[in-house]
Amino acid sequence: MNGAEIALALVSVLCSTAGQIFFKTATTRDFFRATLFLGCGVVLMLVSILIVVMILRTVPLSALVPFAALAYITVPLASMIVFKESVDKRFWLGTLCIVAGVMLTLA
After folding, report:
1. Burial degree of 22 (CB within 10 A; 0-12, 13-18, 19+)
2. CB of 22 within 8 A of CB of 41?
3. What residue spans define the domains of the chain?
4. What is the pLDDT along the chain (107 residues), one digit of tens a residue?
């Protein structure tokens, strides 16, 4: 993968993470705000998917697996920052196992 493809893959992960945060925010009781946040989440997820499709034209799918695994880290971190959610040690241990497994498949 070249630098541009890596940058696009990271943007895709960030869009996906932000989309999931917007989905969580859409659970508000205010219908207008919920609709707005839901729409933003859908747009960001579509952008993420379109970026992945663009990258897949030149990069094998197996090369994108580590970037997909990044969402297991970025989404909980974002939820800790945005929603002040707590994530216990068992979750992080499981996340570490997933990341280690992904890294083993790359070797």
Report:
1. buried
2. yes
3. 3-106
4. 899 999 999 999 999 999 999 999 999 888 999 999 999 999 999 999 999 999 999 999 988 888 888 988 999 999 999 999 999 999 999 999 988 888 888 76
63-72: long-range contacts at Cβ-Cβ below 8 A with a sequence spacing of 24 or more?
63/1, 64/9, 65/102, 65/105, 65/106, 66/102, 66/103, 66/106, 67/9, 67/10, 67/12, 67/13, 68/13, 69/98, 69/99, 69/102, 70/10, 70/13, 71/13, 71/16, 71/17, 71/20, 72/98, 72/99
Q: Do you know the residue count of the chain?
A: 107
